[in-house]
Each structure stands twice: as C-alpha cells, then as structure tokens.
Amino acid sequence: MVMENRILETSCQLFSRYGIQQLRMDDLATHLGISKKTLYRFYPSRQALIEGVVARFSTSHRTDLLEVEHSQQDTLEQLAGYIRTLVTQYKKWSPLFFGDLSKHYPLLWDKIRKEIGQLVLDLLRKNLEKGIQEGVYRGSIHPSLLVTLWQQHIHNDFFYCQQLSNDYSK
C-alpha cells in the first residue's frame, strides 16, 4: 500500500505539472527510482494509473469543498470559502493536465467534470438559498440561474486558460 500511494502521489505531482501526454511510464518509473515492471505491478496499465490520479483529484476536491460546507462560517464566508477552494485546487494542476484528460481520456474527463460540477452547483445553490432565508442575499435572485451563470463563467475562463497553454509555450 505504501508503494501504491507513493506511485499515485508522484503521478499526481508530475501530471499536475506537465500534463499527461508529456510523461511516459518509463519517465515515471525513473522518477520514482523503481522498475517499470514494479510500476505495472501496482498499476497494470496507463489507463489504470490515470483513473487513480483522477479519483485522487476528485476525492481531494470533494473533501475540501465539503469541509467548507461543514465549517461554522457564516453564509458569505462560506461562499468565499468555496471560491477559494476552487481556485486553490485548480491552481495546483496545469491546464495541460485537463486538456490531455479531455482529449485522450474523454470518459474520465466527463465523469470528473460532472461529479465536481454537480457538487459545486449543489453547494452554491444551498448557500444562496440559505443566504436568501437569512436576509444576507436579496430575495429577488434566482439561485439556480445565478449558479448556472457562475458555472458557465468558470468553464469559459478555464477553457480559455487551457487553450493558451496548448497554443503557446510557457
């Protein structure tokens, strides 16, 4: 279990920095100081390793967001906490990772996008509804519409950053 965690943690670090396509299994094994045979013993395919990395990303994301939800912060602090968490999480990962994931592993990309996207929508909608009840937010706002607009804005910003990373060298 220790070696499996080490492989997964190192893969997350390298994929988050360089993207998926830049790293071969040979590169990863060399970086870890293990043989490629050992690497394949724990992760029998590149697909299995990518699935593990995506699962770890998703779990980390979910844990951080739910931690904010269960905090004792007021509604506005909680909203700011969600935004900080999203920004912090996505700053850890290169847009190249998400570009590679969407291009070469579209089913995994769709799965993580839907899981995280739905969680964010639900948390923000709950926050807005609670804030309206508390009188913190105007009662005339429409939580579902506002959350959908925020989600589209974040998606557009993210897509733009991804395009810049793919089109221009850093």
| Number of DSSP-assigned strands | 0
Instruction: Give the helix/strand class.
Output: mainly alpha
Mean pLDDT: 88
Approximately how much beta-strand content do the residues carry?
Answer: under 5%
The best one-word shape is elongated
Please tally the helical runs, counting DSSP H or I stretches of 4 or more residues: 8
| Uncertain ranges | none
Q: Can you give a write-up of this model?
A:
Helix content is 81%, strand content 0%. By secondary structure, it is mostly helical. The model has no long low-confidence stretch (mean pLDDT 88). It contains eight helices and no strands. The longest helix has 29 residues. The two termini are 36 Å apart.
Brief rundown of the structure:
The chain has 170 residues and is mainly alpha-helical. It has eight helices and no strands.
Task: Reconstruct the topology from this structure.
Elements lengths: L1 H17 L6 H8 L3 H7 L3 H24 L5 H17 L3 H10 L1 H29 L8 H25 L3
Keywords for this structure?
elongated, 170 residues, 0% strand, mainly alpha, single chain
